[in-house]
Amino acid sequence: MSARILVVDDYQVARKTIRSLLTWHSMHVCGEAENGKQAVEKVKELNPDLVLLDINMPVMNGVQAAYEIRRIAPSTKIIFFTIHDSPETIAASRAIGVDAFIPKASAGTQLIPAVQGSAGAHSAPPAVA
């Protein structure tokens, strides 16, 4: 059975594109959320194996959501997938214990390997860029 993935981004087009890409690679998207608060609620409801999480979102940003997801579901893998790839943001992701950090500009080459690595039962998570 493939890993259950929750896609979180405030732009519907981005969520649909990511869902299509993951589905094309035979990955199972169990749900979507448009902000961090919804993401936390969906983690409680759907118990995903992996959350693909944008950072800059309304209501609750991705950093706050990742912190809360770590608290309520410590075994859930988290990948930040964002345009915000400053050294400060990468450092914050490490402090929270995010499993990978993928800049959206690198989606074509890094997203699928990162998801496969993080979702794999015995695979080491990909390095934070």
Description:
- The protein has helices at 12-24, 36-46, 62-72, 87-96, 107-119; strands at 4-8, 28-33, 50-53, 77-82, 100-103.
- It is an alpha/beta fold and 129 residues long.
- The protein has one domain: Response regulator (Rossmann fold), CATH 3.40.50.
- A 5-stranded parallel β-sheet has the order 2-1-3-4-5, with helices on both faces.
- It is globular, with a radius of gyration of 13 Å.
- Mean pLDDT is 83; it is low at 121-129.
What is the gist of this entry?
The chain has 129 residues and is α/β, with parallel strands linked by helices. The protein has helices spanning 12-24, 36-46, 62-72, 87-96, 107-119, and strands at 4-8, 28-33, 50-53, 77-82, 100-103.
Largest sheet: 5 strands, parallel
Helix content: 40-55%
Residue windows where pLDDT falls under 50 for at least 5 positions: 121-129
Task: Figure out the total of helices.
Answer: 5
Question: What structural category arises from helix and sheet content?
Answer: alpha/beta
**Name of the CATH architecture:** 3-Layer(aba) Sandwich
Number of domains: 1
What's the pLDDT, averaged over the residues? 83
The CATH superfamily bears the name Response regulator
CATH structural fold name: Rossmann fold
Distance between the termini: 29 Å
Task: Please provide the count of β strands.
Answer: 5
Order of helices and strands: EHEHEHEHEH
What is the rounded Rg? 13 Å
Strand ordering within the main sheet: 2-1-3-4-5
Q: Could you say which overall geometry the principal axes of the C-alpha atoms support?
A: globular
Please specify the SSE layout and strand pairing:
Layout: E1 4-8, H1 12-24, E2 28-33, H2 36-46, E3 50-53, H3 62-72, E4 77-82, H4 87-96, E5 100-103, H5 107-119
